[in-house]
């Protein structure tokens, strides 16, 4: 996948630059659902008085599934998110977005170690190729991120789990919601169908091609846009329920990403691979369907059954009639039953059966390379032209025992059995967690567990890699404290008696501090030509560690403002077991700080900001140039010690202001967003200046930067 990632990275830099130029003139967004208001003042006062009790839920998430949760709403409204709650997850501790773009890495794991669920159904991806999520913010209800130590119900993941719940359709008259913006337009239909049923259908389409038309000549980076990257997505949910004990939902979801460009000899890709010159086209899509039944038995046990089907197509064409066409089809059945053996003791037992069919049609030079290799270009091999099928079957069973052992202690013990026929392995994974209230306001928490996932198919497919690769494995450990602020009654005897305002202010704060340690084993490494079994291309020969501390300080809405501070310090390394060489992981970013604030400035105006600062990613320094052995007259970079250097520190300030409005009798919100308000030139990569290198034969470098200042205005209206 090296070629696709490189093409996407190059194209993304071009699109970001063009989008920023358009954005400098500001664009108007017309959305169809009014922004939800700040947390209710009555609720805030009740919380101050201790009238709202925190309940430890031992089971599935509860609440009104038609209404977005308060925490998810904060992500929707966060400056820089542009209404995309999943795009705002980088403001949470432990989450890193690669400098060159792509899916997030969590707590030192690889992005490919993550697994995504939407309403319990596995999703191939939840982000479009250029980082916006595939889910309309108007239909998301809740979002949970499990960065480590997740429970036994989640299989085939070693990094993090993203668990997204779509809201349920509302019992209402037929409503049509139209959305339009420079980036995307869409429609949302929602209606009750009967006394017991309702549905909605959301469909969106990217509008960027209207503002980035086909170009006649390549730009300074050697790229000519033929069809600007665009995306589309749809989500439909039908719900039937004759009581709270009996629910049936049918979900449909899909997304498409495509774009077309011409790469000339001035582009980095063509400068190093002249046979890549010409038009390149990307078209990815997936469609999924699922049926979910939830039923509460007379005994009180809760039964959950999910059947799903998923089909994904990745199509890439470029250069000298090269192509990657990869089709994936997944059929899935999951079920579990949860029942109480006592008032404070719940058992949850479940199973998952998964059948995955792959079809590879590939014609391209073979680059033998993993994310642990600093120089993929050095591992270019001959052109391969193959058609390859592969079927993978996997099964898992789990049992979870949730026990409120005492008023202060909650325990969760889990066991997972996982087997697959790709590596012909079987695993038994113990997992557990505890929560101990050490005082009225402080809780000690911890978790531990072992995990595995299947090897990446591009490394294990015959002729492209090594079908004898074994599953990747990981162990997670975490220990931390969670606390909530002092209440007014807790100030007695401290010189603050009677100062209820201070007591209420302190009670609005909560915090957490968590230490974590992950180990990784059986990760792939590239075999060198002089090693035994070099014809296998890859072998399980990389180990790793990630450790760090995440600190989160949160202020709930009161006294006209809310906000949070997220601070992460970490280190992530990988070790080649053949050479015993230990290197920083390519996405290792030791220090990340996020500060988010929102303030009700006046009765009408609400303003907010997000400030992000992070140390640079691990980087391999280019120390010289050399003649390209495959193409005379062309040059390749000479790299120093792998991942021993770092990109410069990055920082960004985003701003948002909004106020309620009324247009033609319809209530809504007008808002102003400015991304990268200080116009910081954040370096995303340092590459050869191939034009100067070709002229002089000497080393010349150029720094590519991320998106510059991007202002926008918009409004949302409810029809």
TrEMBL record:
<dbReference type="InterPro" id="IPR036942">
    <property type="entry name" value="Beta-barrel_TonB_sf"/>
</dbReference>
<keyword id="KW-0732">Signal</keyword>
<dbReference type="GO" id="GO:0015344">
    <property type="term" value="F:siderophore uptake transmembrane transporter activity"/>
</dbReference>
<feature type="signal peptide">
    <location>
        <begin position="1"/>
        <end position="36"/>
    </location>
</feature>
<dbReference type="Pfam" id="PF00593">
    <property type="entry name" value="TonB_dep_Rec_b-barrel"/>
</dbReference>
<keyword id="KW-0675">Receptor</keyword>
<keyword id="KW-0472">Membrane</keyword>
<keyword id="KW-1134">Transmembrane beta strand</keyword>
<comment type="similarity">
    <text>Belongs to the TonB-dependent receptor family. Hemoglobin/haptoglobin binding protein subfamily.</text>
</comment>
<keyword id="KW-0998">Cell outer membrane</keyword>
<dbReference type="GO" id="GO:0044718">
    <property type="term" value="P:siderophore transmembrane transport"/>
</dbReference>
<dbReference type="InterPro" id="IPR039426">
    <property type="entry name" value="TonB-dep_rcpt-like"/>
</dbReference>
<keyword id="KW-0798">TonB box</keyword>
<keyword id="KW-0812">Transmembrane</keyword>
<feature type="domain" description="TonB-dependent receptor-like beta-barrel">
    <location>
        <begin position="276"/>
        <end position="619"/>
    </location>
</feature>
<dbReference type="GO" id="GO:0009279">
    <property type="term" value="C:cell outer membrane"/>
</dbReference>
<keyword id="KW-0813">Transport</keyword>
<protein>
    <submittedName>
        <fullName>TonB-dependent receptor</fullName>
    </submittedName>
</protein>
<dbReference type="InterPro" id="IPR000531">
    <property type="entry name" value="Beta-barrel_TonB"/>
</dbReference>
């Amino acid at each position: 996948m090296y070629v696709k990632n490189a093409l996407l990275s190059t194209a993304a830099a071009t699109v970001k630059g063009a989008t920023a130029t358009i954005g400098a003139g500001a664009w108007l967004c017309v959305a169809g659902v009014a922004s939800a208001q700040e947390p209710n003042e009555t609720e805030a006062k009740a919380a101050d008085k201790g009238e709202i009790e925190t309940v430890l839920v031992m089971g599935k998430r509860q609440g009104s599934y038609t209404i977005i949760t308060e925490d998810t709403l904060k992500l929707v409204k966060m400056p820089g998110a542009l209404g995309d709650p999943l795009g705002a997850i980088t403001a949470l501790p432990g989450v890193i977005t690669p400098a060159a773009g792509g899916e997030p890495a969590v707590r030192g794991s690889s992005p490919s170690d993550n697994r995504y669920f939407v309403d319990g159904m596995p999703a191939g991806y939840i982000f479009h190729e250029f980082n916006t999520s595939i889910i309309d913010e108007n239909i998301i209800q809740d979002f949970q991120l499990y960065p480590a130590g997740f429970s036994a119900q989640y299989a085939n993941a070693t990094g993090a789990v993203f668990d997204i719940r779509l809201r349920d359709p509302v019992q209402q008259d037929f409503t049509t919601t139209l959305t339009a913006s420079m980036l995307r337009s869409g429609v949302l239909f929602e209606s009750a169908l009967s006394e017991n049923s309702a549905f909605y259908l959301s469909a969106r389409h990217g509008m960027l091609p209207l503002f980035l038309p086909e170009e006649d000549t390549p730009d300074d980076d050697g790229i000519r846009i033929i069809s600007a990257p665009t995306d589309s997505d749809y989500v439909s949910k039908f719900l039937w329920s004759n009581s709270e004990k009996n629910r049936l939902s049918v979900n449909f979801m899909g997304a498409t990403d495509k774009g077309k460009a011409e790469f000339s000899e001035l582009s980095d890709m063509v400068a190093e691979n002249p046979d890549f010159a010409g038009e390149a086209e990307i078209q990815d899509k997936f469609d999924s369907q699922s049926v979910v039944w939830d039923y509460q038995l007379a005994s009180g046990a809760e039964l959950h059954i999910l059947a799903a089907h998923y089909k994904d197509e990745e199509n890439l064409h470029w250069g000298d009639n090269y192509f990657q066409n990869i089709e994936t089809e997944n059929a899935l059945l999951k079920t579990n039953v949860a029942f109480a053996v006592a008032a404070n003791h719940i058992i949850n037992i479940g199973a998952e059966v998964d059948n995955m069919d792959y079809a590879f049609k590939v014609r391209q030079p073979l680059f033998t390379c993993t994310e642990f290799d600093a120089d993929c270009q050095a591992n270019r091999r001959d052109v391969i032209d193959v058609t390859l099928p592969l079927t993978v079957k996997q099964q898992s069973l789990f049992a979870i025992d949730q026990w409120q052992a005492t008023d202060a202690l909650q325990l969760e013990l889990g066991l997972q059995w996982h087997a697959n026929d790709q590596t012909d392995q079987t695993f038994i994974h113990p997992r557990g967690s505890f929560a101990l209230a050490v005082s009225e306001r402080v809780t000690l928490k911890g978790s531990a567990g072992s995990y595995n996932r299947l090897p990446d198919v591009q490394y294990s497919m015959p002729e492209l890699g090594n079908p004898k690769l074994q599953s990747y494995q990981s162990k997670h450990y975490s220990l931390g404290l969670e606390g909530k602020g002092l209440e007014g009654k807790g100030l007695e005897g401290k010189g603050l008696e009677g100062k209820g305002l201070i007591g209420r202010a302190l009670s609005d704060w909560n915090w957490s501090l968590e230490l974590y340690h992950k180990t990784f084993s059986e990760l792939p490494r590239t075999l060198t030509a002089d090693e035994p079994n070099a014809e296998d291309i890859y072998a399980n020969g990389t180990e790793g560690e990630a450790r760090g501390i995440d600190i989160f300080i949160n202020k709930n809405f009161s006294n006209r403002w809310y906000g949070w501070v997220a601070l992460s310090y970490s280190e992530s390394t990988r070790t080649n077991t053949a050479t015993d060489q230990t290197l920083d992981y390519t996405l290792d970013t030791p220090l990340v700080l996020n500060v988010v604030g929102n303030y009700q400035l006046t009765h009408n105006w609400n303003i907010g900001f997000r400030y992000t600062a992070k140390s640079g990613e691990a980087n391999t320094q280019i120390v010289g140039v050399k003649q390209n052995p495959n193409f005379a007259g062309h040059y390749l970079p000479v790299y120093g010690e792998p991942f021993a250097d770092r990109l410069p520190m990055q920082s960004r300030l985003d701003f948002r202001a909004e106020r309620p409005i009324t247009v033609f009798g319809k209530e809504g919100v007008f808002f102003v967003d400015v991304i990268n308000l200080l116009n910081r030139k954040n370096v995303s990569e340092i590459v050869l200046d191939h034009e100067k290198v070709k002229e002089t034969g000497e080393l010349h470098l150029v720094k590519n930067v991320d998106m510059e200042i991007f202002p926008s205005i918009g409004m949302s209206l409810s029809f």
